[in-house]
Hints:
This is Virginiamycin A acetyltransferase. Keywords: Acyltransferase, Repeat, Transferase. By secondary structure, the chain is an alpha/beta fold. It folds into 2 domains: 17-169, UDP N-Acetylglucosamine Acyltransferase, domain 1 (3 Solenoid); 171-214, no CATH class. 15% of the residues lie in helices and 19% in strands. The chain is built from 3 helices and 15 strands. It has helices spanning 172-181, 188-199, 204-213, and strands spanning 17-19, 29-31, 36-38, 51-52, 62-64, 69-70, 75-77, 116-118, 123-124, 129-130, 135-136, 141-142, 147-148, 156-159, 164-168. The strands form 3 sheets. A 7-stranded mixed beta sheet has the order 1-3-6-9-12-14-15, with no helix packed on it. Strands 2-5-8-11 form a 4-stranded parallel beta sheet, with no helix packed on it. A 4-stranded parallel beta sheet has the order 4-7-10-13, with no helix packed on it. The longest helix has 12 residues, at 188-199. The protein is globular. The mean pLDDT is 95.
Amino acid sequence: MAPDKTKLFPNENIRTVCYIQNLPPRSNVDIGDYTYYSDNTNPPEQFYDRIQHHYDFIGDRLVIGNFCAIAEGVTFIMNGANHRMEGMTTYPFNIFGGGWERVTPTLEQLPYKGDTVLGNDVWLGQNVTIMPGITIGDGAIVASNSTVVKDIEPYTIVGGNPAKTVKKRFDEETIALLLELKWWDQDEEWLDMHLERLVSTYDLQILRELLNSK
């Protein structure tokens, strides 16, 4: 039997891990099934504190797919952190008042990178920072303490500051088949039936059989 994806703490004995989809909803955040946040320092239900400079009036969204693993200290920097850049200085005079608010920028004058999107089965290590407007492909892994400043292709391992490609997890044929399989979209019965195969040492023949079982 699969764990209850509607519970905040699917395992009551491990209350450092929560399914963040079951936190109070936010209009500009979309979290997929079984995606969890783990935090051994703070209550994991404080996940929203990890999304910084995220304001409704900016209009950007944080979208996270199914079965993602998000470790302690991960931070999402959203578009609200951006400063006007075309002038001689980027200093935000307007926020301090005293008459300086006359140079308050319009939204059109601020850099805007769009939505931040994590695919499915993405693993973010501890203290990873994701900059605004980044897309991280299905099956990607980001090493601890990395800063992600550009998009990451599916099934790619990256690390560093700025994060750079370490290697692909699989060859291109395998990646194409995995993206076709989309195991994360299958129902609970299918997942339970094939669970051992999904976590076992990779085998191309098994992958083809799983595709035929959909």
